[in-house]
Amino acid sequence: MSRLWDRELEHYPPDRARYTSLAIVVLTTVVLYYQLYLAGAVATQIISGFGMSFVYYVNISVVGYIFGAAASVAAGLADRYGRANIVTVGLLITGLLCLFGIPAASTKLEFAIVFIAIGFVEGIILVATPALVRDFSPQLGRASAMGFWTLGPVLGSLVVSIVVTNTVDRLGSWQDQYVICGIVGIVVFIIALVGLRELSPGLRDQLMVSERDRVLVEARAKGLDTEAITSHGFRQVLKLDVIGSAFAISVFLIIYYVAVGFFPIYFETVFGFSSSQANSLGNWLWSFDAGALLIVGWLSDKLRVRKPFMIVGAVGSIIFTLLFASKATQPDTSYTTFVVLLSLLAVFLGVAYAPWMASFTETVERHNPALIASGLAVWGLVIRIVIAVSVFFVPLVVHSVTPLVEKGPQVSALAAKYAPELATAAKLSPATAAGLAATPTNPTVQATAVSELSGQSVTDVVKVITLGAQYSDQLATAATLDVATQTALLTNPTDQASQAKAVGEIAKGLGIDPGAAIAKLQALATVPPADLVFLATSAAPVQAAAADLTALGAVPSSDLAYLQANGAEVQQAAADSPTQWKHYFWIGALGQLVFIPLVFVMAGFWDPRKARREQEAHEVWLTEELAKLDRLEKV
Asked: Which InterPro entries match (predicted)?
């Protein structure tokens, strides 16, 4: 049982054990980001389910990031007290919160409290996990290892996209999504409880360039005063290069966090994509990002440089962020176009990020290798503050989202349900519409409305109505006659053949005997031909307009009132939303631009040849140190 709590390794582990711990760390990170990012994928359902405003939902995220920032500072204690137990206990807590806490929330306040609690715990864990990756990865393999760690947020996003895409239309409610990720979290907690290990303080507090350093590191660990070298940790790492590089990646990733938190809302409200379609775009985005992280991490280690990759990644990200932003105001942009743009954007994000993670830990090591968790705590604090600020401004910059998310679904549903009736209402003048609302049974107002709908004059409408009432029985008789018979009777009313044919059609049409049909025909003959001709040309459009007006009157007043109160606002928001989103995406591109000059303050080489010479010099020094150690052991 003590092995479940005492996880420290006194010797640097062989590759198999090291890769096992690294795999568990990556798996843990994937699950944690899956839990953290799931809300963005089902945001519209959460908002409608709790009846919260979009601003309220955004502010929950903002508060969650602020609490996560505070937790990141606390995570700096991992330099003194280790990382593995923090990760394992945290997995249990977040798993239980997702499995039981979120589904049990019955009000928006309860949901907010649980969601913020998840953000707080994960703010601690997500500092400890990259610290574990650094501990198990020498500098010469650091970018590859950090590329694998970065698969956590990327694959976490991908898992969200895949799971939601394939289950959102099948499961009963959005809470079921949290039940799934809660179960997954508990399973990974059990794996971490049994298998996750970490280096002892003496081992992890030293700089390790390559695996050849292992013997020297273990020998020095025995006499290392870990308490002394980790004291005043934050004072040692609060330097320009650490803070500047943390700020650089934070603003660089604004577009990434917009993608995680708001892309489903963006594609659903601006382009009308279904929830499944909107989330499926994430499958492409995160898949390409994951591939780029692994390939570029390997290349960065192979060439022994970080900064050139960061610059290339930043420039490419700016280009494709701007191209993506330009499509916001082009409503005919295809799904395939977005797949291509987002995939290429993801590639360049990965090109910059894996080398940055390696360079950042090396920048911290430049001050003190024993304070990796403290340095990562600074990164965690800065990035969560930047995210909180950028997310807070989403409803302010893209203020059209609020009516689209809160009122858009109901307006769209009512507009689709009453499309013919709304088309009828659109033809009425404001004065006529107001008159119908005030006195719907007023004959004058009704005649005016029918006139506007039919295109007939009010005089003709009144005449159609008057003649229709006066000759209702005769008109019913005329309706049973085909056009040829009517024409023949009008041309020659005394033609016996036409009369006989008319009697037969009337008898059949009205279901009466021939004698009664003859009487009906005689009554029809009393109607002046001019009135019949007038009705033949004017009655049909008037009757159709009257039917449309009757259908409009049958629409529930509450539905019409809702549409009248909110329809214009939603329509205006739909028109404004693309431009506002484009402006926000420009902010993301600006953050990527700010990233570029701050690359220069970080540790690392630009030229692979200089990096290789530095490594060769280290190998010479290491050989000498190992020789000294060997002589001491022999003595």
From this structure: MFS, MFS_dom, MFS_Na/Anion_cotransporter, MFS_trans_sf
Q: Is 528 helix (H, G, I), strand (E, B) or coil?
A: coil
Task: Using the predicted structure, report yes or no on whether residue 210 has a pLDDT greater than 50.
Answer: no
Q: Which residue is it, tokens 């053949």?
A: 497
Q: How high is the pLDDT of residue 311?
A: 95
Quote the CA–CA distance of 299 and 143 in Å, as a whole number: 9
69 contact partners, CB below 8 Å, separation of at least 6: 123, 380, 381, 384, 385, 388
Average the pLDDT over each of 445-454, 563-572, 596-605 and give the range with the smallest value: 563-572
Residue 132 and residue 73 in contact, taking contact as beta carbons nearer than 8 Å: no
DSSP-assigned beta bridge partners for residue 198? 8
Chain position carrying tokens 């930043």? 314
Task: Select the highest-mean-pLDDT range: 84-93, 398-407, 619-628.
Answer: 84-93
Q: Tens of pLDDT along 11-63?
A: 666 767 777 878 888 888 888 888 887 887 777 788 878 878 778 888 888 88
DSSP 141: G
3-class secondary structure, 274: coil
What pLDDT, on a 0 to 100 scale, did the predictor assign at position 477? 84
Cα Dmax for the chain: 141
User: Mapping DSSP to helix (H, G, I), strand (E, B) and coil, where does residue 209 land?
Assistant: coil
CATH of 2-413+582-604, one of 1.10.8.60, 1.20.1250.20, 1.10.10.60, 3.90.1150.10: 1.20.1250.20
Phi, psi of 199 (to 5 degrees): -75, 150
pTM: 0.68
Which two three-digit tokens encode residue 323? 């191209």
Residue closest to 606 by CA, chosen among 303, 209, 230: 303
> Which candidate, 380, 358, 379, 352, places its Cα nearest to that of 137?
358
At residue 323, the pLDDT reads 93
User: Burial code of 391-422, b = ≥16 C-beta within 10 A, e = fewer?
Assistant: bbebbeebebbbbbbbbbbebeebeeebeebb
Distances (CA, A) of 635 to 137, 168, 626, 628: 32, 70, 14, 11
